[in-house]
Amino acid sequence: MLLAYAGLAYVLLPMAWTHYERQKGLAGLPMATRTALGIPGDPLNIGLVGAEEDVVCAVHAAGWFPADPITWRSSLKIIGSVLFDRPYPDAPVSTLFYDGRREDLAFERPDGASADRRNHVRLWKVLKRGEEGRAVWLGSATFDRDVGFNRYTGQVTHHIAPDIDAERDLLTSDLAAAGVVEAIYEVSGIGPTLDGRNGEGDAYHTDGEIKVSRLAEGCGAKTGQPVMLANPPVIDLKNMVWQNAVEALLGWQDKNWQDKN
What we know:
Elements: H1 2-17, E1 32-34, E2 40-43, E3 46-49, H2 52-61, E4 65-66, H3 72-84, E5 97-98, E6 101-102, E7 105-110, E8 118-127, E9 136-149, E10 156-160, H4 164-177, E11 181-188, E12 193-197, E13 203-206, E14 209-215, E15 227-228, H5 233-260
Parallel strand pairs: 3-14, 11-15
Antiparallel strand pairs: 1-2, 3-9, 4-7, 5-6, 7-8, 8-9, 9-10, 11-14, 12-13
């Protein structure tokens, strides 16, 4: 039993939490953003490899819009979009910080007529040269499901849907469908989290992986089907166990809610 414990605690579980072998420069970096008040924000769950030109062109090709900067005009415009159900596909996003810096780029994809529901991502350039000799960007992709009040500050804000892995996978699939991705692989992120809270107090859950897309070089360049690079076996096992655990938990929560109502 002692040997089994030692193997589990000091070998298998650490391996299941960390696998930076495809981007060694990410090891030791924080894997969550922060708000302007220093409150932990959305975790990082998406990665892109390529020059800024590659990133902008690829996300445009995937059908996502660049977010407008926050100004009085854009603030009034997003209020009008939410109140009067008007389209605003490039509405501004609130500022988050990573390593003391606000996001370098932000994009969104509307979901419905107004700006209260949208897919969006903030991106930071974290490595000038990664393992492929190209820049590495990390970002936080989430889905804004409605507008309400920040549970910590009382300010008006968007609230995110809890399944942030779904947003990560959506952006990854949109990029792949646009034919601008050479390869897709995963690196370690925040780690498996069932009861996380972001800077607005919204609950989220995630398997803790960052899904990285290596982009085609040159604006307008296209590729065929991206190559899917395999995870270490222990990571695939962790992801399988995690998925089953989340499905069981969500099923129990639904049943509990139905019993009460």
